[in-house]
DNA sequence: GCATTGCACTAATGAAGGTGGAGTGCATCA
DNA sequence: TGATGCACTCCACCTTCATTAGTGCAATGC
């Protein structure tokens, strides 16, 4: 449908001409909507190219806040973020294209980081709710920052070598960080 | 002596005029050395203002690589970084001035981050040596990135509220991250 | 003999100005 | 009610220029 068409057009144009080589008017023409309408589907140019970011699954968040799915915080963070990262159901060649685009322009890399930063902040709030007084604001901040930095590690690894999925790299980075705190 | 004089002059000038409002020639005149000699003491303008970064203590690094001081990785990382952050022996009012300068100019904040990034990379190498095959490159990268992000949390907290030392904030952030992996 | 310094050079940065296009609000239309 | 046209603001990027940061090298002085 329209959002997918927009993404495909934006990616085609970005690969051909680079991020600065096409306008949102070009994308709109390609996708068959007006430029104004385009912004009803994507929040900006970078998201047009990257595709609409997935929304966190409300039921998983409810479960997480209630202490699930396993009861162990680390495992539950892992499961929740892993599911989020896997929720973007792209074919391998689409992931490969996203990877190439991210590698080619630091602004896209930064946008990925920033999109995930929102998720990490959300998760920190959820941790505060779930864990109560055990987590003060500094701890919540540390948790969010660490989660985000592990995403960065995973993203860098994915861009460098896409034979492993972003979610799997995140899991590995998470385990690596856990080993630091053994 | 000379390095301390350079730092004091650079800080005076930075507080009066902002980072762009004085030249290295001004600092040199104030400190009583030539501009050329100034660079024998500091690597650049930002380090003139922040003071020369401490060097990691070689004996502590040797101890760390050998599996010390306690044998538990998390405790040893904490102890080693804590000692490093405490090794800059400034009076409270000097720390307060550094804090004000960092808060006033993002470039100084960034320089602090980058100075610590070198330490974090060093530590990751030391972890690789100490822990051997248990830590592959991705794990080492995750460890370094997490350590650096916890420094960022500590630095932000210190700039916002300097009633606690940078080292103590780092310890608290480290414990907060450890709680994430419980 | 080594640290300081002067000098000349390159590289980097900030300021200022301009521009195209991103992003947004609002009214109209189908 | 969603799509669209239109007008507007804001912003990122580019260019130009001047200043200064940073650096290498040779000379000097203690």
From TrEMBL, chains A, B:
DNA-binding region: 23-42
Signal peptide location: none
Record flagged with keyword DNA-binding: yes
Residues spanning the membrane: none
Keywords, in A-Z order: DNA-binding
Pfam families listed in its UniProt record: TetR_C_14 (PF17754), TetR_N (PF00440)
SUPFAM superfamilies: Homeodomain-like (SSF46689)
InterPro entries: Cro/C1-type_HTH, Homeodomain-like_sf, HTH_TetR, MftR_C
Residue span(s) of domain HTH tetR-type: 1-60
Protein name in UniProt: HTH tetR-type domain-containing protein
Species assigned in the record: Phytohabitans aurantiacus
